[in-house]
Amino acid sequence: MGWGVFLACWLAAAAVALALGRDTSWDLRNYHFYNAYALLEGRWSIDLTPARAHTFLHPGLDLPFYLLTQSPLNAWPRTVSALQAGYAGLLAFLAIALANLALHGDARRVTPASALAALFGLTGAATLPEVASTYNDIQTGCLVLGALLALLLAPVAEGTPRAAGLRLLAGFLGGCAMGLKLTAFIFPPALALAAVVAARGGAARLRALGPLSLGGALGLAITYGPWGWFLWHRYENPFGSFANNIFRSPLFPLEGQRDESFLPDSIGTAIIYPFIWARRSVAVVLEPPLADPRFAISLTALLLAIILAAWRLRRGTGSLPNGREEVAARSTAAILTFILAGYVAWLVTFSILRYTVPIEALLGIPVWAATREVLLASRPTGARIPPAGWWRAGATLPLATAFFICAIVTEYPVHPREPFFWEREPRGAAVLSVPRSPLPEGSLVVLLGPAVSFVAPSLAAPGVRFVGGPNPNWAGTASDPASYAALVLREVRSHPGPAFLLLEDPSDYDTEAAGVLGITFDPASCRPVPNNVTRVVRLCRWR
Questions:
Q1: Residue of 158, 159, 16, 18 lying closest to 89 (CA atoms)
Q2: Partners of 417 in the beta sheet?
Q3: Long-range own/partner contacts, residues 370-373 (CB < 8 A, 24 or more apart)
């Protein structure tokens, strides 16, 4: 496996990106664009959380997309989408390498079977719709799968500096994933368990955790350390308003800001959860309607594979020859461990499907492993293990059948996208187009609608400040003088110059935040802000 396979993966991902269209997601409009702008343009010393609580999220993964929109390539949206698809191409490349290890014991050996195992997961409802988007789950998926691949390659060089180096690299990549997007914190423990399963012998298992932990600490410190220190210095909490039940900043409510709306409501529901969204569902693991049986099929296969492998061991027929078959067996066991541990952590923490990309990309491997175990368990006791080609060919057919069923049944969630050329665009085709309309010097702009902070760069002028409307859930109440809401209220009341509102629709905005800030306005003062990301943004004169 080499550059040719990676380029093929990138081209395939680019084709998907071009078919999907430009990303115009709520997250892009709300904070992915503004956060990068604020970091590079020094807005943190001027603005007050225009993207509300999401302003506190790490902007590192948003920088490449923002820089592309600030370059001449902004006028070439198809090119930018093809470049953004490179992340999905890398994810596919890593998934194929892991499938190669599990099926053949060699990360470089690509076969139709391993390609099919990777394709099974890569076409899932979490991964495929995100190609070339700015959600950043595919980017963290690349880091996590890269870490898992390094872990599985380490046992081959056990006892050498290379093994320790690979585990150090694996920890570093896992720490970077967590540092750049905090929702990836569920994966380092799963990687640690996979490292223990993949290592050879008890002493090697303990040795595996040392460099893995050190690398994880380094990756997290390098990627999140400066950002966390900045937030701590400014807000007394390294995560802004998040996890304030731990850090207890007086600016924010003493709550964790955890989204529990997608969590299963009982143990029984949690057990059958994958089967609920295997058929069409709405607001179960994502807001849009979707149907995808991959998790239901794969997790059932995973449990079957574990049971049959344990049964073979009890019968005394569980040993495998040395060499590549042993590498394949260890790799498969480690991958199944990673999937199961990661899924359980995801289930009890978020249950938001987008965050499962590193797991979903590997879901074809348990299906293949279960079929292989069925074939191996079906031979008579004492009979020799059939040649690898025999059970490999036999295991491929059920995997192909499962993939065919999923292809028919899957209903992909529709994330906001627009055509590459939209007749209402103010300047023709562009990745992101908002004509500049500078405000009077010293203006204050209060954002009362979520998902409008992407307009801020086009309104910038000397002395202009952008302020997000405070919500009690994360900013506290203005009656508490130490709260962030009270800080915003003081800044708004003391502003002497012109004041404007930025919102999506004058008939539908955050009236609670407007009431806290004492804002009233005449809808007749509102004028549209033309753009090619959403059709409903208004700028209204307040005073």
A1: 16
A2: 23
A3: 370/301, 370/302, 370/304, 370/305, 370/308, 371/301, 371/395, 371/397, 371/398, 371/399, 372/305, 373/304, 373/305, 373/308, 373/309, 373/312
Tallying the residues shown for the chain, one arrives at 543
Say how far apart CA 524 and CA 459 lie, in whole Å: 20
Tokens 């900043």, residue located: 249
- Give the Cα separation of 499 and 459 in Å (integer): 13
Q: In three state form, how does the secondary structure of 311-344 look?
A: HHHHHCCCCCCCCHHHHHHHHHHHHHHHHHHHHH
Residue type, 497: G
Residue that is written with structure tokens 């003493």 in the block: 254
Model pLDDT for residues 285-298, shown as the tens digit of each residue = 999 999 999 999 99
Angle between helices 86-104 and 77-84 (to 10 degrees): 30
Instruction: State how far the Cα of 305 lies from the Cα of 340, in Å rounded to an integer.
Output: 12
* E-only strand ranges, 350-464: 417-418, 444-447
pLDDT at 390 over 80: no
Q: How many CB atoms lie within 10 A of CB 245?
A: 13
β-bridge pairing 22-23 and 538-541? unpaired
For residue 493, give both structure tokens: 């009341």
pTM confidence score: 0.94
- Strand partners of residue 501: 446, 540
pLDDT tens for 103-155 read 999 999 999 999 999 999 999 999 999 999 999 999 999 999 999 999 999 98
